[in-house]
Write a structure and sequence with these properties.
mainly alpha, Erythroid Transcription Factor GATA-1, Chain A, Retinoid X Receptor, 2 domains, three-stranded antiparallel sheet, two-stranded antiparallel ribbon, 13 helices, 7 strands, 5% strand, DNA-binding transcription factor activity
Amino acid sequence: MISGFDSNKKLCTVCNERPSYGYSYGAFVCNACKNFFRRIHIYKSPLITPIKPCLTGGRCKIMKKCRDCRNRRCLKMGMTPTSHELPEVLDLPKIISKSKSDKEYSNTIQFLKELDRQRTKTFLTRLSMEDLSFDDLITSNSFNLIQRTTNFKPDFYDWATIDQITAIRFMKRFPFFEDLGTQEKKFFIQSSYVQFIILCNAMRTINLKSAEAIYPDNVDVFPVEMKKFYEFCPTKLNRIRCYLVHKLRELRLTPEEFLLLSAILICNPTPMIYTKPNELKIAASRDLYGRTLQKYCETQHQPPIRMLDLMSIIFVIYQTFRDFAEVWTVYHVANPDLELKKLFSDFLLLSMQNK
């Protein structure tokens, strides 16, 4: 467990009543909810009374009064048993051989680096001239991307289109993706691809040495007409452009940390959406990336609080996402006849649904 979290600012993500004590089993929770999850999923004591189905069908508001709803909430928040938190009474191997551990660490980072190399290369050199939809990006593995010439100057819509294509391609190359059902694949992508794009844009901005989020050639991350709409109240747009960039710069996020944090963000094994085998595969992948990130921090001689600092980035990403969804929603409501290509219409719809 990662301790030292600022409990004055964040409540437990399960009960939403007590201060969060730290990051345990995949979520920021209080001690009571951490121990509840441990009793149910880790120790599995035969003395514990089996959980009875909720009498309200899972709609309880006070988690501590209903064990079924509390357990559902734990799983929904992403809590999963991880190998380093399992008790010794389970008789699991205590030590993974150093050679196996080192190989896993090296292979994991190299795998993500190669995915990101391909994503970046396509992003910087290709254009899409098709009117693609979100479903097209999920179901098809090949798109008609043309080589971008040096004299062509992409605008916001060009950059944003290839940004979405390359982000979704990146996510589809995780090893478990082909095992997912059609609806599972769609949910897997739509649940985090906007957040992943937000993180990619912020990291790219750091590399471009800009103080606010931009695309290459100083192209803004908002279209011209939207900037004009918000010209008398630019605070929201500026917050979206700057908040996450400032956080990454403050923490001096490394490329390896960026990739591993991206993988943790993407691999969210939401229960009741995936089949149990697929949920476990996604959870195992997230645990792998979490272990690798922790080991990376150790090899870089970072203090223990570094992991907590890195996980705090995810909160900033989701706050930026909420702000992003809000400004687009307001803009869309004020311009109901807005004509957009399919991908941007789907993008806007998903942003509003996930807000």
